Amino acid sequence: MLAGNLHTNIRSGDAEALVLSAGALLLNLNKKKGSIQIKIPSNLRFQGEISMDEGGSSESPKKAKSKASRKPKETLLKQKSPAEFFAENKNIAGFDNPGKSLYTTVRELVENSLDSAESISELPVVEITIEEIGKSKFNSMIGLVDRERVDAALYDDFETEKAREKRLAKEARAQEIQAKNAALGKKAKETPAAKGFKGRGEASFYRVTCKDNGKGMPHDDIPNMFGRVLSGTKYGLKQTRGKFGLGAKMALIWSKMSTGLPIEISSSMRNQNYISFCRLDIDIHKNIPHVHLHERRENKDHWRGAEIQVVIEGNWTTYRSKILHYMRQMAVITPYAQFLFKFVSDAPDKNVTVKFARRTDVMPSIPMETKHHPSSVDLLLIKRLIAETSKQNLLQFLQHEFVNISKSYAERLIGEMGPDFSTKMAVKSLTSQQLVRIHQLLRQAKFDDPNGNCLSPAGEYNLRLGIIKELHPDMVATYSGSAQVFEGHPFIVEAGVSVGGKDVKQGLNIFRFANRIPLLFEQGADVVTRTALKRINWNSYKINQIQDKIGVFVSIVSTKIPFKGTGKEYIGDDITEIASAVKYAIQQCCVQLKSKIVKKMQAREQQERKRNLSRYIPDFSSAVYNILKNTQLHASKKSRYADDDEELLNKVSENLITKETLSEKLAKHVEQVDYEMALEYATQSGVSEEPRETIYIQSHEGEEKMIDLHAPFIVFRVFQ
Ligand SMILES: Nc1ncnc2c1ncn2[C@@H]1O[C@H](COP(=O)(O)OP(=O)(O)OP(=O)(O)O)[C@@H](O)[C@H]1O
Ligand SMILES: [Mg+2]
Question: Locate the DNA topoisomerase VI subunit B transducer domain: which residues (predicted)?
Fold first, then answer.
């Protein structure tokens, strides 16, 4: 039984009909029709009042109706274009602040260039230039007249005379301390005051240019490739650096936000005898390119590749080391590429030119595009595959649109789906329920894991080369795992662990790579860091996690790298398969290192023993000699010695045995023992098992007479 007053204040908003259900009571308010229906079950008695509250004031339904009809209703629903979304949330794509944006712009352009050159099996040649543009130059570029400040107090960096004096005094003090420290040989630490005063509004601008020898782009596709967020050519299941169709557009969005200047693209493909030139910016609200100029130009030099130029706000000072670090690590993981990096400014002492020469002509195999693994698909993807397939019936669809489903397996799967399904049924006319059934079965059924043939890992050799180049370690071990799978996506983990080296800090020095991209940010949350820090018992491999200089290099490649965020900065720790593969790869390196470390320790101990024994030789031989001499001097005729001893004493008396001869003999003995131990050590460590390689030097004619020339680790067979 419902009793008492029921006050329902309803803010009408846009709801045309609002149904309130309070237990057994049902109120149906239809504002448009101006009616309120109250359905009360017959066994209930209703007593009370209902008041409607429009914009805070109580109005009668009649009044509310007349107001609604006067004013067109405003909808709260709004839509954002992808470009708008990323412009507003640019940090998720790595454009957090001007400095980071400069870094990410370089990254995105370099990675596009490498993808492009590798896609046509061309050894990449990438030139990247960052040109600093002073404020006046920037203003003249955009046609803005430089203006002197008139009302100085208006500016964010305005200082009163008193504040200025205080700052200068502080700076002078800091300089004094620095000079004192320098005199005492202490390392100078830059104090904030010494950095100088910089206002918020003092922006720095840079022209970033990236030129490559890659594939180039089809003339007509260029505007969409650079002016439409979420458009790209790398969406398939293929190991590429790019994935989201976002990077180049983010550079343009940032340039639009910070300088308002367009992006310029030049490109020439193999089959084109012209250069496509395009200057464009992006209509953020519509997410479409806004083309300023798009034309074909003469290509006298038969140049092939692409050149992208963008002017953005940045901060070279704070991100200099990150950018150079990135380039260096990129050169490490891409030794078959040649990079030329230049920073150019008006102050020649600030300029930087670094050439990372190609260290090998051998490019890893080209990653292949693959099909979806049946256990990795969701309902949406199944629908998309059906919409896009050229196959007619269900059997062909299952057999051809997925990996690891043979014809006979597809037949078994269809049989298992139930009586509503048949091999010949038209795949495009499947009902929603049937699609759900297919999805359920694909998730539950057993399929062979996808193989890693479509992947192209960096290779143990490149990893080892990289570690040696970066850290110059005392010892290094590498391991390349076989392909594994997470959520139906194949991946390969390779690792290298080193100990020692010059300019390496104590503890763990972690280097991460994903699809051959160096990852420099968000290290703490990354699967590699967490594994190395928390899941490896370094002590058990005779490695001291705190005191030893440990280098950990891990490279992961996959058709889908599960990056956290579109900024591609780290791989989360939540995918068990990846986390355990990383752990296993690091452990395998550690196992190799342990045996090396143990052998090294044994060798060190052995050397120590030799040194110790040698140290006692003079005293020992002199003591032994003295005993012998005394025995010989005091030997009476009555004394009886065995023949050997008699002979020994005679030799002492004839000076055939002296302190020197004893020392000599002992030294030889120690040498002999050491040699034998060294031999044993060499045998144990497999030096004698060094791989033998037979080289045949064969003459073009003549009989097959041959001579074998044996060297310690090689046999030359010379055919005469
Ligand atoms: N230097 C280049 N040479 C050839 N094609 C390029 C180059 N730069 C960009 N492209 C083309 O433009 C497309 C868009 O590039 P963009 O960087 O925006 O996205 P993506 O590389 O596909 O993915 P991601 O957002 O992960 O970088 C690429 O897919 C590629 O086809
Ligand atoms: Mg890209």
Answer: 450-609
